[in-house]
Amino acid sequence: MAVTAPSFVPQTELMDSFGRVHSDLRISVTDRCNFRCAYCMPEEGMQWVHRSELLSFEEIERIAGVLVARAGVRSVRLTGGEPTIRARLPLLVEKLARLRIPGTGEPIDLAMTTNGATLPLVADDLFAAGLRRLNVSLDTLDRDCFLELTRRDELPQVLSGIDAAVAAGFAPVKVNAVLMRGINHDEVVDFLRLGRDKGVTIRFIEFMPLDAQGEWTAERVVSRTEVLEQAMSEFEFESLERGSSPAERFRFTDLEPGAPGSEFGIIASVTEPFCQSCDRMRLSAEGQMRNCLFGLDHVDLREILRGDGSDDDVLAAVAGEVERKWAGHAIGQVNFIRPSKSMSQLGG
Ligand code: SAM
Ligand code: SF4
Q1: d(Cα 239, Cα 232) in Å, to the nearest integer?
Q2: For 72-119, what is each residue's pLDDT tens digit?
Q3: Dist. CA 276–CA 45, nearest whole Å
Q4: pLDDT tens digits along 304-328
Q5: From the CA of 347, how far away is ligand 2's center (Å)?
Q6: Cα 265 to ligand 1 centroid, rounded to whole Å
Q7: What is the four-CA torsion angle of 164, 166, 172, 176, rounded to 10 degrees?
Q8: Average confidence score pLDDT of the chain
Q9: Whose CA is nearest to atom 17 of ligand 1?
């Protein structure tokens, strides 16, 4: 009779009261940024977290290590603010790339989201340190519009950054674009051409009410349906199996299946929320763990670590935070409450 090895059961499953199991950890490594995207940060007046209040690499490694070893976390994404402006980031990547999934001994799925401007300088080091998946945020291919949106004239640097990421070996490189009516709503075809030319996966993300200025309105959201209409005016494509990903996936039918640039995606976080299958939790740069971008509360892990708390204390705090997660974000409904922090502070 064949004997199969028992699969590993985490000691604490991070399950909320709706039965959603949490295995994806987003870690913000800084709240600072070299851009000032209008939908994310005000141009001036941000209150930065003091250096001493940021989690150290050792503290981040400890939290991620406990959650991977004992709570079923399988994927970690570094974000910010702009993660690449945190000094010596490849050292943190090395530490996290060493984490192994209990039972299988496999590495975790380690990824990063960046605005891309510094990638020409750091892409090789990050790849060498063990990072394998990279998302670059880019919302317009028009230089004037880029300057208006990010308040920086750095479109050429970001485009070079995408090339540097591909050359370093990241595959697939994903490029995330947030479309906003009246600003960049008509760039779907241009982005899809860029994806096909550069061999990267474009993903359109619906604009969410997390902008520091509070300028979000439902009318400014460019919906999934509108993106598909623009795409269909120029390309032929078909739907792909979605799996557990929040992105709906499509494949250009004239390109080799699986070839770089042969797919694109849509993340309809506003018009078709995927809250019912959400498995994410977020750690801010100063150590606050939140169960949702739109959560109004958090648990302070830095206080536990710096107060000599044990791994059990960390685990219990995270499990409690996950347990009280809401069913969904309620954007567009009367009971929606806008979070007081922006994406850059929460760790988008
Ligand atoms: N600085 C990095 C970057 O821009 O990729 C990482 C942090 S940034 C906060 C992460 C993502 O949040 C970016 O893709 C950005 O486009 C997205 N974002 C910021 N504000 C947003 C909003 N109001 N609605 C939708 N996405 C937003
Ligand atoms: Fe910076 Fe990213 Fe926010 Fe833009 S979206 S201001 S790049 S953190």
Answers
A1: 12
A2: 999 999 999 999 999 999 999 999 999 999 999 999 999 999 999 999
A3: 36
A4: 999 999 999 999 999 999 998 888 7
A5: 10
A6: 16
A7: 40
A8: 90
A9: 348
Ligand 2 atom at minimal distance to the Cα of residue 34 = 1
Q: Is the pLDDT at 210 greater than 70, yes or no?
A: no
- Tell me what the mean pLDDT of segment 120-136 comes to: 97
Give yes or no for residue 110 CB within 6 A of ligand 2.
Answer: no
Specify the residue with its C-alpha closest to ligand 1, atom 10.
348
The token duo for 181 is 């009516």
Looking at CATH, the fold of the domain delimited by 24-346 is given as TIM Barrel (3.20.20)
> For ligand 1, what atom is nearest to the CA of residue 35?
1
What's the distance, CA 332 to chain centroid?
Answer: 22
| Spans of all domains in the chain | 24-346
Q: Is 115 in the pocket of ligand 2 (CB under 6 A)?
A: yes
Q: How far apart are CA 150 and CA 319, in angstroms?
A: 37
Pocket test for ligand 1, best of 33, 113, 118, 157 (most atoms within 8 A of CB): 113
- Cis upstream peptide for 90 (omega within 30°): no
Residue 261 falls in which region: left (phi positive, over 0), alpha (psi -120 to 50) or beta: left
State the pTM of this model: 0.91
Q: Is the CB of 36 under 6 A from ligand 2?
A: yes
- The residue contributing the CA closest to ligand 1 atom 22 is 208
Contact present, 156 and 184 (Cβ < 8 Å): no
What per-residue confidence (pLDDT) applies to 2? 47
CA 163 to chain centre: 20
Beta strands across the sheet bearing 288-290? 237-239, 248-252, 263-267, 201-206, 173-179, 133-137, 109-114, 75-79, 24-28, 280-283, 288-290, 299-300
Q: Tokens 């960390």 identify what position?
A: 314
Beta-carbon neighbour count of residue 227 at 10 Å? 25
